[in-house]
Design a protein that fits this description.
The chain is mainly beta. The strands form four sheets. It has an eight-stranded mixed beta sheet with strand order 14-15-16-17-1-20-19-18, with no helix packed on it. Strands 2-3-4-5 form a four-stranded antiparallel beta sheet, with no helix packed on it. Strands 6-7-8-9 form a four-stranded antiparallel beta sheet, with no helix packed on it. It is built from one helix and 20 strands. It is about 10% helix and about 45% strand.
């Protein structure tokens, strides 16, 4: 009898452990987040099919980039690039000459702040910070600090659709932020082609009615140096841009030396990309995959 009772409890314990493991929510475990967040439940309308198109690229021009710049945000304005550089003690907002990589204008963020994404809207530059739940608003011409704003969660990427700020926080959620009140107007949830949450959405750019997103460490989902194309209305994954191998010279620093930074010249259609501590900035042309 005792032997039978022992067998019963052993089987029961094993069943409980299996159930706990299966029902535990997905988590994002890395050294770039504070708290692991449960994944949202996928519905049939949120899941994408396996036929997501993949594009590739052609390098049109190569320019110098400050290899000490830990790029967190990038946008194009009137012939110049504007860049947000991260890391505590090294963060700044910069205006950069494309052809030479020369920094023409610079605002040093307080040394205890880790700067993140930036966006232009209505003549102002908005800049996120990593874990301090604080953002900055600057005059786009003078870099004069106009005010600060607050938000919940981490700050990663930032862009705009000429109406709202569009923000990522390292999860699979993208928020549309009203620029005057800094309140969330709406959110979209992004799923990969496998129907799972597409985590680590990072630097953003709004291009031709789409959100383009760098994925932090996209090699962990077997898509090294890939950019996701996202529908801003539904969050649907529209496609991938495969930039794998774009700059072999820029993958030798450390594991954080990832592709990060997308800028679009809407007037000419030019697209620029770079990465954290990369020595090069690339102007690229997107091509269908052969």
């Amino acid at each position: 009898m005792r032997f039978s009772i022992l067998i019963f409890f052993a089987v029961y314990a094993l069943a409980c452990k299996t159930e706990t493991t299966q029902t535990r929510p997905n988590v994002n475990v890395n050294n770039n987040t504070n708290v692991s967040k449960p994944a949202a439940t996928s519905s049939p309308s949120q899941s994408t099919s396996s036929g997501v198109p993949v594009s590739t690229y052609e390098v049109v021009n190569t320019f110098k980039h400050d290899s000490k710049a830990f790029t967190e945000g990038l946008f194009f304005l009137n012939g110049f690039l504007y860049e947000s550089v991260g890391l505590v003690g090294k963060s700044s907002l910069r205006k950069v000459e494309i052809e030479s990589g020369k920094v023409l204008q610079k605002y040093d963020v307080p040394r205890n702040i880790f700067a993140e994404g930036i966006a232009l809207l209505n003549g102002k530059i908005y800049q996120l910070t990593y874990r301090t739940e604080k953002g900055y608003v600057y005059d786009a011409e003078t870099f004069q600090l106009l005010k600060e704003f607050n938000y919940q969660g981490e700050g990663w990427g930032l862009t705009s659709d000429d109406k709202n700020l569009i923000m990522s926080d390292g999860t699979h959620v993208i928020r549309f932020i009203e620029p005057e009140t800094f309140q969330t107007a709406r959110s979209i949830i992004v799923f990969g082609e496998d129907g799972k949450p597409l985590m680590n959405l990072n630097e953003l750019e709004f291009i031709n009615g789409e959100i383009w997103a760098n994925i932090w460490h996209s090699e962990t989902i077997n898509k090294p140096n890939h950019i996701a194309r996202i529908d801003p209305t539904s969050g649907k994954l529209l496609g991938w841009i495969n930039l794998d191998g774009i700059s072999p010279d820029d993958v030798e620093h450390d594991e954080e030396n990832t592709l990060n930074g997308i800028a679009h010249d809407a007037a000419t259609g030019r697209i620029f990309v770079t990465g954290k501590n990369w020595k090069k900035l690339f102007e690229i042309k997107i091509k269908p995959k052969a």
